[in-house]
Amino acid sequence: MPCTGVVHGGLHGRWADSAYTHALMLQPSSIPFLAQPPEPDDAPLHILWRDEHLVAVYKPAGWLVHRTGLDAHETRFVLQTLRDQLGCHVYPAHRLDKGTCGVLVMALHAQAAQRLGQAFAGQEVRKQYLALVRGWLPDAVEVDHALRPDDAPEDAPAQPAQTSLRCLARLEWPEAFDPRHAATRVSLVEALPATGRRHQIRRHLKHVAHPIIGDATHGKGPLNRWWAERLGLQRLWLHAHALELAHPMTGEPLRFEADWRQLGHVPDVQHWRALCALPGWQAYAGLPATARADQTASAGAPVSGCSISGAAT
């Protein structure tokens, strides 16, 4: 499907033809995804914002939100690490998959936890994700596809689930994964889930035949490995970029947004910025301002790495 308003080059920059041609011949080792060493397991979590009622943190990819018997050998947990880091009890209000990075909100007392839980259950929270997916997604797709819980019996009823998808940019890599085609295509996608089913975005993108690159459960294993070899990195390309919700105690509207301009030292952000800096992207809608690799934060931007609007700014 053709793009309108196509901009050739990086998502937010211009590349000369010679630079583009050279980049297409890059070997995985020369793509700067792994230029920086990963943060140590005992590194503190990045606090994006906090008051006496709730805290927003940046969850790294590879971390679990809390302990679970399904991954008994994992040693990195946001809940326990944040509790020790803040010196107080914290309450999970929602979850992110282990491979997903980005904004995670937790309550600091039981009443705030109850109200946050009600807001998430009542679909009163707006969530914005970024994903790298197979193929060229159409400009906009509305997915209304009920989902049965992964661990539910076959005769269990499926639950309503809706996700809005929007193509932000498209890339045609001049090497064929499928010998029937001359090149391999991917899209950078914004996903706005209206409901909160487990693995909803991942399952909905699979449903529309555009699975997330690096998704070992709902994606395509051979394609995942093919891209990992070319990018020099194996990971789930799903990023929880922003949350909008009412403050659980005051009702004031809040927006927590992971600001890549202030989180440039975080390995996950380095991966995403390197991906978006690859030449050849055709920019359709473009990234949010706080997820652009070519901008620096303004003088008044918060040093925490969170772009926030609302009463608590």
Key features?
single chain; alpha+beta; 12 strands; 12-stranded mixed β-sheet; 19% helix; globular; disordered N terminus; Pseudouridine synthase; disordered C terminus; 6 helices; 313 residues
Q: What does the model show?
A:
With 313 residues, the protein is an alpha+beta fold. The chain has one domain (17-147, 159-310): Pseudouridine synthase, CATH 3.30.2350.10. The chain contains six helices and twelve strands. Strands 1, 2, 3, 4, 5, 6, 7, 8, 9, 10, 11 and 12 form a twelve-stranded mixed beta sheet that branches. A hairpin with an 8-residue loop joins strand 3 and strand 4 (101-107). It is globular. Residues 1-30 and 295-313 have low confidence and may be disordered.
Q: What is the annotated CATH architecture?
A: 2-Layer Sandwich
The third-level CATH topology is Pseudouridine synthase
The span between the termini is 41 Å
Counting DSSP E segments of at least 2 residues, the number of strands comes to 12
Q: What is the gyration radius calculated from CA atoms? A: 20 Å
Please tally the helical runs, counting DSSP H or I stretches of 4 or more residues.
6
The best one-word shape is globular
CATH superfamily: Pseudouridine synthase
Beta-strand proportion? 15-25%
Please, what is the average pLDDT?
A: 82
Structural class: alpha+beta
Main beta-sheet strand count, sense and barrel state: 12 strands, mixed
Number of domains: 1
Compose a concise summary of this entry.
Helices cover 19% and strands 25% of the residues. The protein is α+β, with helices and mostly antiparallel strands.
